[in-house]
Design a protein that fits this description.
Elements (H helix, E strand, L loop, with lengths): L7 H12 L24 E5 L6 H15 L7 E5 L6 H8 L7 E5 L2 H7 L11 E16 L7 H10 L5 E4 L6 H12 L8 E4 L5 H6 L5 E5 L4 H5 L3 E6 L26 E8 L5 H15 L2 H10 L2 E5 L1 H21 L6
Parallel strand pairs: 1-2, 1-3, 5-6, 5-7
Antiparallel strand pairs: 3-9, 4-7, 4-8, 4-9, 4-10
């Protein structure tokens, strides 16, 4: 296990202060029992470090609803949005809740990418991994009347005339929408530094694609479904290992089946503030595992074309270290790294 908890002495000091009415630290000990277990005794807060409607927000709200409908936890869960900085505003907020286990947040690859770019002082090492709950995948969409029929058509044009093709995404340069495209395009032989990527964090990505201001939309699979149904766009490829199941998405070809041997997984899970105890982590691990195994969460995954990718705290910590190395290599390819 990574060094993400307070030393034993600090934990005992916290509990002793709580028993004596010791200021703010008393909140950390709430729910502790004689057998060493822990349960919250106040409502919980799930933070989505973004605006409403995105992947983080949807995951937080679906989890909160799932806990309530399945009666998995006695305490209620509220969801709040802390938008800004590609996630950095929300991370700073949670960092300020150190040792308070009643505040969790949703995260995905930007928690690795934004700090590596030097755009946040907080990275995954500064928080407590609780559980990963789903995997999502990237999709590369173009207008229905675009000249490309598959990814290979697109990438051949990008090799010849990279300055003529604009890729748009909601994340900042060097973050997820950019890097998932770079990873697939690089495997297909496109020079990562030649890719013309623009960021539209104001929610105008689809509008810019449809009105011709951009040529390719790098996004999540779910974000493309309605416009595909409407006949406005087509998806040239997705970053999954194999085709997804479900209406509409089952027709989206993978990059791999087009001969491009690369994938990109948008993992998404929950983290707590620094300073959580073993007992607190165990409590949340058990609750998230129960939600993950429920029929309701299975239906939720189907609804949003998410795949199952549950990891407990220890597995998650190890996975994140491996992912960080991979993300750093990609950032180096596009000359983006922490200053």
């Amino acid at each position: 296990m990574k060094n993400i908890w307070l030393p034993t002495l600090a934990l005992f000091t916290s509990i002793t202060l709580a028993a004596c009415g010791g200021g703010e630290d008393s909140e950390n000990a709430e729910g502790s029992s004689g057998d060493g277990s822990w349960e919250p005794e106040q409502s919980l807060e799930f933070v989505a470090p973004s605006g409403a409607g995105g992947g983080w927000d949807t995951t937080a709200r679906m989890a909160a609803e799932g806990f309530e409908e399945q009666e998995i936890m006695d305490q209620g869960v509220g969801v709040v949005n802390k938008e800004g900085g590609g996630g950095a505003v929300g991370w700073s907020y949670i960092a300020g809740k150190a040792e308070n286990p009643h505040h969790l947040f949703v995260a995905s690859p930007p928690l690795l990418l934004i700090p590596l770019n030097g755009q946040s002082e907080y990275g995954h090492e500064d928080f407590t991994p609780i559980a990963n709950m789903i995997s999502d995948y990237g999709a590369f969409a173009v207008r229905e009347d675009a000249p490309w029929e598959d990814l290979n058509d697109l990438f051949e044009d990008m090799k010849d005339n990279p300055e003529d093709i604009t890729v748009i995404g909601e994340s900042s340069p060097g973050s997820m929408d950019h890097i998932q495209f770079v990873k697939i395009a690089k495997e297909a032989g496109v020079d990562p530094q030649s890719i013309k990527y623009v960021s539209a964090q104001d929610g105008s990505t689809m509008t810019n694609l449809l009105n011709g201001n951009a040529d390719v939309y790098s996004t999540g699979v779910t974000e493309t479904v309605e416009q595909v149904r409407a006949g406005e766009i087509k998806v040239l490829g997705i970053t999954a290992e194999e085709r997804l199941e479900g209406d509409v998405v089952e027709d989206f070809p993978t990059a791999k089946e087009q001969g491009i041997d690369e994938t990109f997984v948008n993992w998404r899970g929950f983290f707590g503030p620094p300073g959580m105890t073993d007992e607190q982590i165990t409590y949340y691990e058990e609750k998230f595992k129960e939600l993950n195994d429920s029929e309701l969460w299975d239906e939720t995954r189907d609804k949003y074309a998410w795949n199952e990718l549950y990891m407990d705290s220890e597995e998650y910590a190890e996975f994140l270290e491996e992912e960080k190395e991979s993300m750093q290599e990609l950032l180096n390819e596009v000359n983006m790294e922490e200053e």
